[in-house]
Amino acid sequence: MTKARKVPATYARFESPPLEPADELHLIQTALQSLTELVRSSRLEGGPILWSLDSDADWPPPHVSITLCGVMDLQGTLAEAASLFDLDSTDAVRQYRSRFSKDIADYASLYTLAPRTPEHPRNYIGVKWLALNMPSPIVKDRDYCLLECQDDFTFNGVRGWARSFNSIELPSCPLFPGLVRATLFRAGYVFIESTMPGLMKCVHVIQTDLAGALPTWLVRTAMKRRVRNIVEIDTLLRQLRLSFSASLTDDQLVPLSMRRSCFLCSTKFSPLVAKQQCGKCGQVVCKHCSKLWELRGTCVRVCHKCAAGAGIDLPPVPMPTVDNEAPFQIYTCDDAKQRHRRPLPRAFSTQVHDAASRPLPERQLSWPDDRPAPDPFQHRDIPVGRGSMQVLAWVALLAIGADAAKRAPSNPIWKEVLALPDITSIETTLTTDGTYLEVRYDGAKETLKTISRVTSLCLTGVSLPDGLKKFSLSRVNLKTIPKGFTWPASLTHLDLSSNKLTSYPATTPLPDGLGFFSLSNNKIKSLNDYFTWPSNLTELNLASNQFSTVVKLPSTLTKLDLSGNPLKTIQAQQQWPESLTELALTNTQLSVLPANLPSNLNIIHLASNKIAKFPSKDDLPDSIHYIGLTHNKIATLPSKIEWPNLFTLELDSNAITFIPDDFSLPTSMGILALDANKLAKLPASCDWMAKLSSITLRDNAISAFPPTCTLPNAISLQNNNITALEDMALPQQMDVSNNPISKINRVTFPEGVFWTTSKFELKEFSLSSAMFDLLSAATDHTYFYPQFTTDDASVKTACGYGTVKKLHDFPISICVV
């Protein structure tokens, strides 16, 4: 066992005594099992988690967990992906934090259980501690004690690499004052090679319980923003590849005078649309069709076409832009009742080893014969117990492919299923080997039986057993509900999503105790006038069908999803359930908000519509605390936002050109998102920002701040035109990447400051003695790693009566006055 070098920590310094060999072996086995479960969970179809494309609905309650994943196709290789997570040094962790996880407040490596070796450079197992900054200053930071595993794997002949985390409990990592210990049930990254050389799929899974009584919308906002760091991986891989391709010299570029319109979008150049030259192909493009890339220490403008191909002979993958977000998708978990791994006990014993390594009953599988299960990971020689091999069988099941198919049960599927005693749950899942059916039976024991190679399923002649609580028959080309079919009275969860249903028969009533019902992703245009709803239904998902009008709704609903239907308009006399607290109308072609919304509505999702006018005070109830209006056509904001309980307002990707001079927000506001609009400046009086905990202004054209502007605790300003930060109070957390900043003078900031920057060069940089001391402390033994530099001669010339001082070993000179 090799003990890792401790990283200086803000919250605590750790003493990590050596582990007993048996404890160390047990942690290694647990890490391998966790990585296996992560790979299995990352399957969008066929894993233990039933994923659906996120429409901001059906979120598990915060006391259970938040479960979601981000998916993106990337250019690159497994070796390149693994190199991004080689974090065996403090400098590597600093770089990682600045690129991917800006919310990491502190970090320590407690144990290295299986270090990288020349034979296995991509394999690693260790124990780490980290603390996370929460997005709101009124919420305590969270920390985790984590078991990490990095390893290669293979299933169905396809190679992959994964990095997994799960929470454990160790005596050497106690609870700390001021922090709330959160739990990661499963989390990590899974990279899988594509059939097309040079491409791979990345899946980022997070299943966590942040603990404490946090508002659901705050947890959702924080976790969705965190899972989006998968986009940063794509950006870095493109950056690495662009660095290895040749850039053109100035005389090789197409002269600006020869082009009157953008080479890519054909927009005509004007005083408001400047000409830019791509450093890779030389063509003249506009700012919106290009981006500044940091390549080997030099900023080079590259058009989106060259960036999509990464400058090499590989199949191009579209750049994630405002107008094209398809390459990146977030999926959420449909089932809130997930089964999680318990954290390891604080103390180990032989009895604990045996119990912990024994797989849970629902994870046992019956193999086709008595041969031992193959190990899909082909890990280096680390002992793995019998229990571990049984859990690994979940992924190994994928590896045996066609052989397992030949030995699949030959009896009719429903006959085999319904012969099982005390069935509580029947669910379909999809894998690359076909459709699987998972049945839990034996009552409270919930023994699991898996049937593979199910080519199709229907309900003709099927009589479901009493006692069945959950029935999910998704993605099996189900076309009809047969005449005379009945549902068990015990059913509480019914999911018929992603099939080919064109109607639901009124003659097949839903059980009165049903609480969740989903018909999403079918082809239903309407429901029969005689259709009746259960009296206890609280969650209804009708997303992605062909409804042109809103159906008559049950009065008991609390959550309703109508996203992806061509509603276009909603009648003024529409009656909404008074108990409704969450309504999703994303991508429904609406141009105005619906009327008569219920007085208890908390959350409304209206993204990707055609709404051009910002809602008035009377359009939404006072109870509203989340409004999602991204990707609409809103051009102006009112002077006053008046909803008294509003916390989050998302207005990304609209057409907002200015913020009114007398703009004001309610005291409840915490998060305001204005990314990718057309803002060129901020109002002269921006004291309203001080009420916020976070504001995002990425991808605008802001060039300066008013001299009296009071900023929130966190602000994101990437990709703007800011040239100077002078005579103002800066926030604790600030991202000013990709701005042409040349001056920072006479600014103040709080203790613990953390800025994210790119490699710009300052001509002037002056601070007071007190601010210099704060900045020096913030960059010493933390992960605040300034990327910018200074022109020492220019700083000295502008210094006047001050004293020029160096900031540690960074290439930064500061005039201290």
TrEMBL record:
Where's the START domain? 136-225
| Keywords, alphabetical | Leucine-rich repeat, Metal-binding, Repeat, Zinc, Zinc-finger
Origin superkingdom: Eukaryota
Which residues does the UniProt record annotate as the domain FYVE-type?
A: 262-306
According to the record, the residues making up region (Disordered) are: 346-375
Query: InterPro entries, from UniProt?
Result: Leu-rich_rpt, Leu-rich_rpt_typical-subtyp, LRR_dom_sf, SLRP, START-like_dom_sf, START_lipid-bd_dom, Znf_FYVE, Znf_FYVE-rel
CDD domains in alphabetical order: FYVE_like_SF (cd00065)
Pfam families named among the record's database cross-references? LRR_1, START
Q: Which SMART domains match?
A: FYVE, LRR_BAC, LRR_TYP
Q: Mind listing the GO molecular function terms for this protein?
A: lipid binding; zinc ion binding
Q: What is this protein called?
A: FYVE-type domain-containing protein
Q: What organism is this sequence from?
A: Saprolegnia parasitica (strain CBS 223.65)
